[in-house]
Amino acid sequence: MQEDLFEKYGKSIKKGDVLFEAGEQGSNMYVVKSGSIKITIKTHSGVDKTLAILGPGEFVGEMSLLTGQLRSATATAVENCELIVVKASVLEEMIVHNTEIALRLIRKLASRLIGADSLIKVLLHRDSKERIIENIKRLASTHKQDESNEVRFKADFDEMAEQVGLSREETENIMLKLSGAGFLVQDGGDWVIANVEDIDEFLNFLRLKEQYR
After folding, report:
1. CATH code of the domain covering residue 161
2. Does residue 97 sit in the same domain as residue 114?
């Protein structure tokens, strides 16, 4: 079924290609079939800030279609991607005639709002270690645990630094310390959380330490 859709409505883009830019009029939304798309905004200082990295099964660019407003962010391929293109007229018809698709879209939008709240929560932390750990937990919540309770996510030091509002040097230093302590493991281009519960316990320890300093 998905292959038939891709044959009819598919679009392939290469790593580094810009799918759309902030400020553009949106006439299509996209469903990621394979690969991943990075969503960024430009700060007042001109720095690109990563809001999300969306993988297979995720919607990209739906807000512009639903609101009629210009694109609020830029979407760039993190790796080679296959996308299914959905035009505005098709999306409206799908929502009207297919309650399952409408509910799925609502759930995705609700999830995005929760993700935005989580990112705000990350940035409110004054302690740099807590910021990074909260962000790791946020990234982990968007990925499934396997049977061994491990969670994999992609994030390089630059992206993590953007997300938590710290320098690359400080971010790298903290993440390598977490790795050295066994909370994180680098595996190729992935980070692996050995046990999410251990991360929670360490975060609680940091908070208690700060409280009784």
Report:
1. 1.10.10.10
2. yes
**Predicted TM-score of the model (pTM):** 0.54
* CB within 8 Å of 151: residues ≥ 6 apart: 140, 143, 144, 145, 192, 193, 196
Which tens digits make up the pLDDT trace of 37-52?
988 888 766 777 777 7
CA distance linking residue 170 with residue 188, whole number of Å: 21
The per-residue pLDDT for range 159-203, each reduced to its tens digit, is 788 777 778 888 888 888 888 888 778 777 778 877 767 766 766
Domain CATH number, residue 106: 2.60.120.10
Distance CA 122, CA 143 (A): 18
Q: How many CB atoms lie within 10 A of CB 37?
A: 24
Query: 68 CB contacts (<8 Å, ≥6 apart)?
Result: none
> Closest by alpha carbon to 32, among 14, 51, 62, 54?
54
